[in-house]
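We now fix the convention by which a protein and its fold are recorded. The integers have meaning only within a learned vocabulary of local backbone shapes. A complete example follows; check for yourself that the lines match position by position.
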Amino acid sequence: MWLQVSLLCLSCLSLPSRSQAQDQAVLRRSNDHGGRCHYTFTVASPAESSCSGSSMKPEMDGVLSRLTLLEALVSRLIAGVDGGAGSAGTGVRASGEEGFPEDYSQVTRERNQLQQDKERLNGQVQELQRRLAELSQEAESLRQKPCQQPHTLGGTQRENRPASDPAYDFGKGAYQEMKAEVTEVAASRLIPEGNHNFTGCEELQSVGDPVLHRKADSITGKYGVWLQDPEPPGPLYTNKTVWRIDTVGKDVRQLFAYEDMDQLSQGFPMKVLVLPEPMESTGATMYRGSLYYQRKRSRTLIRYDLMSESLASRLELPHAGFHGQHPYSWGGYTDIDLAADEQGLWAIYSTTKAKGAIVISQLDPESLEVKRSWETNIRKNTVANAFMMCGHLYTVASYTAPNTTINYVFDTATGMGRAVAVPFKNKYRYNSMVDYNHAQRKLYAWDNFHMVTYDIRLGRASQGSI
């Protein structure tokens, strides 16, 4: 805070007496253009051409006396000395308060406020310095333990990343994958097989609005399959890895892998795998590090191992209709629909013996052998799609109606099915794929070029059956 004191000589004013001159003294305070505090002390002078001379000495002595007191007060304020520190300071303060009580109090308040602001800012600076020291220690620790993952996967990822991807060049240090050594055990593996009443696996109560993640950019993406593995073996692919297959075409073989949802939305695949056999329809699913799908124009099921990038097993699904014999209502050769949930791997299809009614079979995820089957009382070509959740089959009534329902549920634990009415939205009017991910607790769907997810809510099953 800057303080300036100036003494003005008013030559045009008369000064009747010493006491009257002292009474006419005025102290003014204002801010100049630089933001400094400016004090002006004004006294009257005799009507003379100059303020100097022996005739002015008595009046000037009085002015100088008061000016000396004022300068002492200003010096004390600048030094920040408290008025009660000593007898001399007390005298100055008393004189200042007697002459200028209001100005002194205001200056004191400003000084106290500035002192508080200074203490607060000092505290913030100390806290920032402390946090900076912690971050510096963490950075030094990371530099001493360089991540080896980019070297392990660098060749593969670098080959499959587009040149437009800013993370393409490892050499420039723009990309580094951090990998934690974590062993995951899926909850479904801790539950005895056949136990359908474990905590947290109840019946579907509601489905939220669709959330868009990406729109396909060519006609081959009008319908397809997109999903995430609920139980990935790792470490090459995780539960964040997104898989996508465009199923429009004569020879569907390309499987796109994305590091996560963000890379999917930007259209940057980290890898493109070529399937050993062409795929038919949108009934593929992902489970425990393998892609399960139906071979084109056959009832043959294929398990494609993602780690070795090779065909792991294949087997015909007994008596299953294929290539348009028992599809969903939208067509698309959707005769065999594979699904995974908390209970394992499933096939949803129909047979000539079942006369078009939906048949559910639980499959061995290694050999693809049928472990057990159930026949429902709802025809497959009367529903738009179906999925498995907690050992329950759910069907969707329409693939084009913007506001439709999940209209049927079949419980494999009891062998009973019944009608339900859970609201479901086809926002883009052509929903060709619906699949459940029990790790994410979401439904994944492909709706007319759009890849969307739905949040769900589970609860206690209602009573009654058909």
User: Anything to note?
Assistant: Residues 1-22, 47-54, 81-97, 148-199 have pLDDT under 50 and may be disordered. Helices lie at 18-23, 57-79, 87-99, 101-144, 149-160, 261-266. The chain has six helices and 24 strands.
